[in-house]
């Protein structure tokens, strides 16, 4: 009977240790998730800014191309087409 209580006490102790370890891990994971969420938001913001810069550059290049006169087509151009 005493050994049963001792085994039960050991199991309760192990369960308590496991509970504490899981709680610590949970806190660490929550902090990591918060950091990753913040990092993700920063990257999304950077991505949006870069996409805007690409769009603006595309518009500038398109505007410059419109300013150039059309090149006369040569026989070589027709062969390449």
Could you tell me the strand content as a percent range?
Answer: under 5%
Which percent bin holds the helix content?
A: over 70%
How many helices? The count is: 2
Number of separate strands: 0
State the order of secondary-structure elements, H for helix, E for strand: HH
- Structural class comes to mainly alpha
Which spans have pLDDT < 50 for at least 5 consecutive residues?
A: none
Shape: rod-shaped
Q: Span from first to last CA?
A: 95 Å
The largest pleated sheet is described as: none
Provide the gyration radius in Å. 33 Å
Mean pLDDT: 93
Q: How is this fold's topology laid out?
A:
Blueprint: H1 2-67, H2 75-80
InterPro entries: Cell_div_ZapB
GO cellular component, one term: cytoplasm
Keywords: Coiled coil
Please provide a written account of the structure.
By secondary structure, the protein is an all-alpha fold. It has a domain at 35-63. 89% of the residues lie in helices and 0% in strands. It is built from 2 helices and no strands. The longest helix has 66 residues, at 2-67. The protein is rod-shaped, with a radius of gyration of 33 Å.
Provide keyphrases for this structure.
mainly alpha, about 80 residues, 2 helices, rod-shaped
Short synopsis of the structure:
With 81 residues, this protein is mainly alpha-helical. Helix content is 89%, strand content 0%.
């Amino acid at each position: 009977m005493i050994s049963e209580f001792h085994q039960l006490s050991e199991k309760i102790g192990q369960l308590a240790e496991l509970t504490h370890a899981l709680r610590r891990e949970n806190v660490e994971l929550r902090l990591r998730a918060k950091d990753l969420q913040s990092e993700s938001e920063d990257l999304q913001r950077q991505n949006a800014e870069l996409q805007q810069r690409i769009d603006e550059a595309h518009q500038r290049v398109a505007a410059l191309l419109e300013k150039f006169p059309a090149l006369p087509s040569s026989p070589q151009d027709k062969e390449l087409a």
